[in-house]
């Protein structure tokens, strides 16, 4: 059968040809097979063909290469293989290296096993025998590795079974159902994948749709074309489909990566307002998981849903990090250090009842240094210490693991430790389930004859957790797609495509050769076996092809950008050569944090306000324009505030907190208008004060605002919760405006009015189903005695009484006020998303929304015992969440070991008032400080220095008085 390669000008032409092949079948029951480069391409093609063929996809089968290989192997009755759980491969490589006398590489070299595993995988997917590898240590390792994996079931073994000479052509014919095979969206193939396609061409017609996208001579499509022509005698034809019209193109630079991500989110919102669906937008980058996190955070702040194409590595999640750390402590106790152990115990994913702030002092007093068992013995002197009990329990579990005699027993013991330290109170944690799912298959290593070894188990578990990917739900639906430029989205058509971080040495990436099989050795193998191995120096050509594909995949608009610095205070970066070649004009954007003119006080500059400093490009332009190059004098000329900046930097690095950290208690006499209890605060401002007082200082006292591309209500228009809230508000308002509909029970029991409103206001079937569920709840509340009375209540100076005859003034708002037959009044507050702020949060200092509602109703004369506060939310999937607070609970006495809720509320309010009056606004990066959880989504992070976490830890020990109140608030948070 012939293999035909059709060369296409762009992805749009490929989609046209794909639909033509599907429609050219004699009937919709005729089999058509399509081989895609990724699961995402398969989903997109299925959607395309369903829309083009009125949903007739019954006989269209989509595969990825590994799926097709597995199907062929199944029909070919391949010999059974042993299970090969994630993590077993790295352990096997380590054991193999220990068993061989290697002069080139020391077996215990850090990272050697992981690097060797990547090299061995390349050799296997090139279908090379040990004899094809240059003589030496690598050949001996590859020979031993081939023996180990000969009967192991892994990803590459599926290809090996499929292309094996023992697999008959009949297996290919049955796997393909006698239908032709279309290869779509694949641009580079390993040698074993090319062999798979060649075997398919022996039993059926195979046509490869290859998008060249202006490919250079050595680009991936050209290399694939040449290899298939040489190995399969492929026939090459050029498509007659004309290329699509070029989309609009924009290019810009931002001051730092966070500002760049915020600008992309702003432009996505603008496209959404113009009618482009979020799932028809794509953001590509080459920054890995941190780039995903940054873009997702910016889109969340804008109220835009997102979907990670590549998912999120379990090892990058807080619980995955904690699980890896806990396994390392238990399985390798001799390497445990005091600092790392305390960091683990204070990790937010670890469930410990003690106070981590006291543990470091206890550890130092006990002389703890390293070694889990040694530290446990030293700490056991103080039997009453919580830290002592924790170390004793960890040491016992570590001893139990060391005494295990099988992988099954060891894995079960470790999983029990995970459940004990990482499980939540409800026992329902999908992340913990993912950890258990990744680690549990390691029990199967007993079947391989591997003896249980704690050090090998630690390697396997780390590998298993690192290989587990957490997928976002509902791909291609309602969310902006975010992923790697060279990943699964290559060539998939979107209305709008963004490329972020197009900086030199990032995209295209700086090529790093394989240290064990460098390009020179790979080239020698390719001279004997053409195109057997990919060369690492060709990475730049692959990135260039990915860039061209991204530009051609955009139907409506293409936008590329880069940040001029690696971070808010990092070093300068240059634009990618790919961007410079494509752009006619590059828009330069300033930082999202507003800049302020300096104010002079006695000749000094007030450096508590952030000022714009020149970047490297401005300085270089000034140097080029200067007739005489005296750089020191020139820098003072273009930046007069340089000396003051140096002095301010030194002050911020002082051993104790200063006014540059927001500590203004020593200057209160000079701040005549600082009367915080006479000002009005929003609940959000008080939450900011608890989260990070320095951020409160910047926003509330220094008036530093962030650039907001759209009004908040505009940012949330696409959220289902907004639509449902609008329908319910109109429904209740209609009841309040109609004097004849004063029977709320009858009104709320009639589904027709609410359904008609949902259809007229949203036209969304999901919104209609959601409001109907809410109507059922409203009818139930009506039968219980509740009835709506008012909508949208607000007050500017509601009072929350504080000890000492003081009051905090709050601006409060209630979305709806209900009245009960027994006289109680219920404040209903609407939120977005499934994670509702706790209605009891004001007691613990985590959310003050319900405190504002209580203050508003109290000012209206409602007794606290008769106040009810209810938080409600509709998630994007239409699920309803609610939390209710009863005012009479404040009168309930506390348990034997706790204070009453009323006492805790009074203590929290008093502490807030004291903090405001003392004006000690110290920065708080979060706990543990090195993770900087409070800085991840901070809109004014650029006003802090990069060493914020280290500076905070150092100063908090040198100046504990300044942070005492904030630490007390933080301990009270849930």
Features:
single chain; 974 residues; alpha/beta; 7-stranded parallel beta sheet; 38 helices; 25 strands; 45% helix; 14% strand
Description:
The protein has 974 residues and is an alpha/beta fold. The protein has 38 helices and 25 strands. The protein has a seven-stranded parallel beta sheet with strand order 11-14-10-15-16-9-17. The protein has a six-stranded parallel beta sheet with strand order 3-2-6-7-1-8, with helices on both faces. The chain is globular, with a radius of gyration of 32 Å.
Give the terminus-to-terminus CA distance.
Answer: 67 Å
What's the number of helices? 38
Could you tell me the radius of gyration in angstroms? 32 Å
| Physical arrangement of strands within the biggest beta sheet | 11-14-10-15-16-9-17
**Total beta strand runs:** 25
Largest sheet: 7 strands, parallel
Strand content: 5-15%
How does the helix and strand content classify structurally? Answer: alpha/beta
Query: How confident overall, as mean pLDDT?
Result: 82
Low-pLDDT segments: 591-627, 707-718
Oligomeric category: single chain
The helix content is 40-55%
Name the shape in a single word: globular
């Amino acid at each position: 059968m012939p293999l035909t390669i059709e060369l296409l000008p762009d992805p749009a032409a490929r989609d046209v040809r794909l639909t033509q092949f599907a429609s050219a079948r004699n009937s919709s029951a005729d089999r058509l097979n399509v081989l895609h480069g990724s699961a995402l391409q398969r989903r997109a093609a299925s959607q395309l063909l369903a829309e083009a063929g009125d949903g007739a996809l019954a006989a269209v089968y989509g595969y990825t290469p590994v799926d097709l290989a597995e199907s062929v192997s199944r029909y070919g009755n391949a010999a059974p293989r042993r299970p090969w759980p994630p993590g077993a491969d790295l352990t096997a490589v380590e054991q193999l290296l220990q068993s061989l006398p290697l002069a080139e590489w020391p077996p215990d070299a850090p990272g050697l096993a992981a690097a060797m595993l990547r090299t061995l995988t390349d050799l296997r997917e090139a279908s090379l025998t040990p004899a094809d590898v240059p003589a030496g240590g690598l050949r001996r390792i590859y020979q031993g590795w081939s023996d180990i994996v000969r009967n192991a079931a892994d990803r590459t073994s599926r290809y090996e079974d499929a292309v094996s000479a023992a697999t008959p052509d009949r297996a290919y014919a049955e796997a393909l159902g006698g239908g032709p095979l279309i290869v779509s969206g694949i641009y580079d193939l390993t040698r074993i994948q090319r062999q798979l396609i060649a075997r398919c061409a022996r039993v059926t017609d195979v046509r490869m749709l290859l998008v060249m996208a202006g490919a250079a001579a050595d680009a991936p499509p050209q290399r694939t074309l040449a290899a298939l022509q040489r190995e399969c005698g492929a026939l090459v034809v050029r498509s007659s489909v004309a290329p699509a019209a070029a989309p609009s193109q924009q290019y810009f630079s931002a001051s730092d990566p966070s500002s760049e991500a915020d600008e992309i989110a702003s432009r996505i919102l603008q496209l959404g307002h113009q009618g482009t669906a979020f799932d028809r937008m794509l953001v590509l980058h080459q920054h890995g998981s941190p780039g995903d996190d940054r873009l997702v955070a910016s889109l969340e702040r804008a109220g835009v849903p997102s979907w990670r194409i590549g998912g999120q590595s379990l090892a990058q999640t807080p619980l995955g990090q904690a699980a890896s750390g806990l396994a390392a402590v238990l399985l390798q106790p001799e390497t445990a250090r005091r600092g790392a152990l305390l960091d683990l115990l204070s990790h937010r994913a670890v469930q410990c009842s003690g106070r981590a702030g006291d543990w470091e002092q206890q550890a130092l007093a006990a002389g703890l240094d390293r070694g889990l068992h040694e530290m446990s013995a030293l700490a056991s002197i103080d039997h009453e210490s919580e830290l002592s009990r924790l170390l004793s329990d960890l040491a016992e579990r570590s001893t139990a693991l060391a005494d295990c005699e099988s992988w099954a027993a060891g894995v079960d013991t470790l999983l029990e430790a995970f459940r004990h330290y990482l499980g939540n109170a409800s026992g329902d944690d999908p992340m913990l389930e993912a950890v258990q799912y990744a680690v549990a298959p390691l029990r199967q290593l007993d079947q391989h004859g591997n003896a249980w070894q704690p050090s090998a188990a630690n390697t396997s578990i780390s590998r298993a957790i690192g290989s587990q990917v957490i997928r976002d739900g509902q791909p291609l639906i309602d969310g902006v797609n975010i992923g790697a430029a060279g990943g699964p989205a290559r060539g998939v058509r979107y209305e709008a495509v963004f490329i972020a971080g197009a900086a030199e040495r990032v995209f295209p990436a700086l090529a790093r050769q394989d240290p064990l099989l460098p390009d020179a050795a790979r080239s020698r193998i390719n001279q004997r076996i053409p195109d057997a191995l990919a060369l690492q120096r060709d990475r730049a050509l692959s990135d260039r092809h990915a860039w061209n594909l991204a530009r051609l995949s955009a139907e409506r608009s293409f936008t590329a950008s880069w940040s001029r610095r690696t971070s808010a205070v990092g070093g300068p970066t240059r634009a990618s050569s790919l961007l410079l070649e494509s752009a006619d004009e590059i828009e330069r954007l300033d930082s999202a944090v507003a800049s302020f003119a300096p104010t002079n006080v006695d000749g000094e500059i007030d450096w508590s306000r952030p000022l714009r400093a020149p970047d490297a490009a401005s300085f270089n332009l000034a140097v080029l324009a200067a007739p005489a190059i005296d750089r020191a004098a020139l820098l003072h000329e273009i930046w007069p505030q340089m000396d003051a900046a140096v002095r301010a930097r030194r002050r911020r690095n002082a051993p104790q907190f200063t006014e540059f950290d927001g500590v203004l208690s020593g200057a209160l006499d000079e701040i005549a208008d600082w009367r915080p209890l006479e000002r009005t605060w929003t609940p959000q401002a008080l939450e900011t004060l608890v989260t990070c007082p320095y951020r409160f200082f910047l926003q509330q006292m220094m008036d530093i605002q962030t650039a907001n591309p759209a009004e908040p209500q505009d940012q949330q228009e696409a959220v289902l919760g907004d639509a449902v809230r609008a329908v319910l508000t109109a429904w209740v308002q209609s009841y309040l405006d109609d004097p004849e509909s004063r029977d709320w029970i009858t009104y709320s029991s009639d589904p027709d009015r609410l359904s008609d409103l949902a259809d007229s206001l949203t036209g969304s079937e999901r919104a209609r189903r959601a409001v109907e569920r809410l109507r059922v709840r409203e009818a139930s509340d009506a039968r219980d005695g509740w009835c709506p009375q008012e909508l949208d209540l607000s007050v500017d100076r509601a009072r929350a009484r504080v000890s000492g005859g003081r009051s905090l003034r709050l601006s409060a708002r209630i979305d709806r006020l209900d009245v009960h037959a027994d006289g109680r009044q219920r404040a209903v507050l609407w939120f977005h998303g499934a994670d509702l702020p706790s209605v009891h949060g004001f007691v613990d200092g985590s959310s003050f929304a319900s405190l504002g509602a209580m203050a508003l109703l109290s000012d209206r004369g409602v007794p606290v015992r008769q106040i009810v506060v209810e938080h409600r939310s509709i998630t994007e999937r239409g699920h309803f969440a609610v939390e209710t607070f009863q005012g009479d609970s404040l009168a309930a006495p506390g348990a034997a070991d706790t204070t009453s809720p009323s006492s805790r509320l009074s203590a929290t309010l008093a502490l807030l008032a004291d903090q405001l009056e003392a004006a000690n606004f110290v920065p708080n990066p979060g706990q543990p400080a090195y993770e900087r959880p409070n800085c991840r989504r901070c809109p004014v992070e650029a006003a802090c220095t990069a060493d914020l976490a280290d500076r905070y830890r150092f100063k908090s020990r040198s100046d504990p008085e300044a942070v005492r109140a904030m630490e007390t608030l933080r301990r009270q948070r849930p």
